[in-house]
User: Which sequence fits this backbone?
């Protein structure tokens, strides 16, 4: 049971009700991952906006982003997000036994060379942001990434840490 009083669909008003209606129309339900933000229409709106932006990202693939969230969430011990992103990766053909191995060694993730480099970079940022040096960024540029993409992938990983901490702190339960 969540530690915050989450707003259910029948209690929602204003912007929260609008967002919930959109979720029901597109996903068929309101995930607990969004209900946790329902006490603040502003925070919920920001989270939904971020999700929409990254879901439609032109160059950061859904598979790369799911690996970022999975591995960040594994590090943060956020069971909700590990489960959710494992499910997403199944849709990309990444089997559970593969995921177990990738958690142990992220360099084995089945990604193109440039995406794997981006994944390892953002994991380094999350683990020890002070360790990043110019050659780390230059390596990504040499693999075809531009500064916008580097920043946005890093932002995605860093905000995943914050979301994981919120989910863990407020004891968000898996969706049933």
Assistant:
């Amino acid at each position: 049971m969540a530690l915050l009083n989450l707003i259910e669909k029948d209690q929602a008003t204003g912007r929260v009700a609008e967002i919930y209606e959109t979720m029901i129309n597109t996903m068929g339900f309101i995930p607990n991952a969004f209900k946790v933000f329902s006490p603040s229409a502003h925070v919920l709106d920001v989270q939904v906006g971020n999700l929409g932006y990254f879901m439609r990202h032109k160059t950061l693939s859904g598979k790369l982003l799911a690996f970022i969230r999975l591995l960040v969430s594994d590090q943060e011990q956020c069971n909700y997000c590990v489960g959710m992103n494992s499910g997403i990766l199944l849709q990309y053909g990444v089997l559970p036994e593969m995921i177990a191995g990738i958690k142990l060694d992220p360099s084995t993730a089945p990604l193109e060379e440039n995406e794997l480099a981006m994944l390892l970079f953002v994991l380094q940022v999350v683990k020890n942001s002070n360790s990043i040096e110019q050659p780390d960024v230059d390596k990504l540029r040499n693999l075809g990434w531009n500064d916008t993409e580097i920043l946005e992938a890093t932002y995605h990983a860093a905000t995943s840490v914050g979301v994981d901490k919120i989910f863990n702190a407020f004891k968000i339960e898996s969706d049933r």
About this structure: The chain has a mean pLDDT of 96. The radius of gyration is 17 Å. The chain is about 65% helix and 0% strand.
